[in-house]
Design a protein that fits this description.
By secondary structure, the chain is of the alpha+beta class. It folds into two domains: 8-127, 2-Layer Sandwich (STM4215-like); 148-225, Carboxypeptidase-like, regulatory domain (Immunoglobulin-like). The chain is 16% helix and 34% strand. It has helices spanning 8-24, 80-93, 105-111; strands at 41-51, 64-75, 97-99, 118-127, 148-156, 167-170, 176-178, 184-191, 200-206, 209-215, 222-225. The longest helix has 17 residues, at 8-24.
Length: 231
């Protein structure tokens, strides 16, 4: 539940409706495409829930992630310019993720309406897990100062194209940065603990996806390839 008592799907729907109102230039009602609805206008409807890629953190329990897929349909010729504005805004903003896959005749037969121009919109959602109670401290605390290191790397897509404005987070810490136009990033203040060996886990957020990568902190030519999750 959110702080205002709404569930995750309800909150995601309200947020998407607010974004659509700005992009389309008018309020977009939430409802299925049906005869007898708006004669000329857009409607948005949560079509299905799709599983998301789950991650595991080194500290607190990671949220449960999934995707809500919405159907944005246009009724009447006057709705087409509004649909165009929504599509252009999504492309320019880089989110939400829009798919041109709403032409399945079975889908429209299920709604009982003729096929009409429409988009599928995927909105990532997460549900926070409750934190377990911390166990009592039974031994004196031992403090030691860890040296820090800097982690440099690049984030690219499947075709080696650099991905700019991707948020790169060091899982389990507050350390985070963003990639530059060349896809490069630099994380400072990465703990360099000689008593612990193994990879460092990074979380990458952007373009409608959240991915994780385990990397070698000693790698001087670190390249992370982001591939979108299979649908």
């Amino acid at each position: 539940m959110t702080d205002d008592g709404r569930g995750p799907v309800e909150a995601a729907t309200a947020d998407l409706a607010a974004w659509l109102a700005t992009a389309a230039g008018e309020v977009v009602p939430v409802g299925p495409p049906a005869d007898g609805g708006p004669a000329d206008g857009l409607t948005v409807w949560p079509l299905e829930l799709r599983p998301g890629r789950q991650t595991r953190g080194t500290g607190n329990r990671e949220p449960y992630r999934f995707t809500v897929r919405y159907l944005l349909s246009a009724a009447g010729p006057a709705a087409l310019p509004r649909l165009d504005r929504v599509l252009a805004a999504a492309v320019v903003d880089g989110e939400p993720e829009v798919l041109l896959e709403a032409g399945d005749p079975e889908l429209w037969r299920a709604f009982g309406v003729p096929p009409r121009p429409a988009l599928l919109i995927d909105v990532p959602v997460q549900v926070a897990r409750p934190l377990p109670a911390a166990p009592p401290v039974l031994r004196p605390l031992r403090l030691r100062q860890l040296p820090m290191r800097t982690l440099d790397g690049r984030v690219v897509g499947p075709q080696e194209q650099p991905l700019a404005a991707m948020r790169v987070e060091l899982v389990g810490t507050a350390q985070a940065t963003h990639t530059d136009p060349a896809g490069r990033f630099r994380l400072t203040g990465v703990p360099d603990d000689p008593e612990q060996t193994g990879p460092v886990r990074l979380r990458l957020v952007g373009r409608g996806h959240t991915l994780t990568a385990d990397v070698d902190p000693a790698d001087t030519d670190l390249v992370i390839v982001c591939e979108p999750p299979a649908r």
